[in-house]
Amino acid sequence: IQCAETFKRSDGPKVVMGILNEFDHNINILNSGFAVVAAAASGNEILKEAFMELNIDELLVQLIVAQNGSNIQSLFDALRVLLTPDDTRVLASQVSVRHRMKYIILFLVLLLSDSWRYHLLLSDHFF
């Protein structure tokens, strides 16, 4: 717990997000960075919230689409940790539900935009 508090106080989430955003094309850095996210956020609702405030959800979805999810296992580990509630308190549960809803909306937008692009592609070729 003390390490997590030190990580939060020293702007650890912000530093990690800066690295992930800057090196979003480097698979090794992404794997290492998301491993840090998963380890830091595991069992810590405060750090989960800190990462969510820094829009890690948007980065995760963007990378899943851009990389086709390949070779970034720690990305999925981080996603699982961020979406899994660690606390039975009502407030913490509400935060987790809000996070899940945000991911669902992002994935639906991506799904719909991909479907729309596919529809336009078909109509260009067949109509």
UniProtKB/TrEMBL annotation:
The chain crosses the membrane at residues 103-121. Keywords: Membrane, Transmembrane, Transmembrane helix. It comes from Nymphaea colorata (pocket water lily). This is Armadillo repeat-containing domain-containing protein.
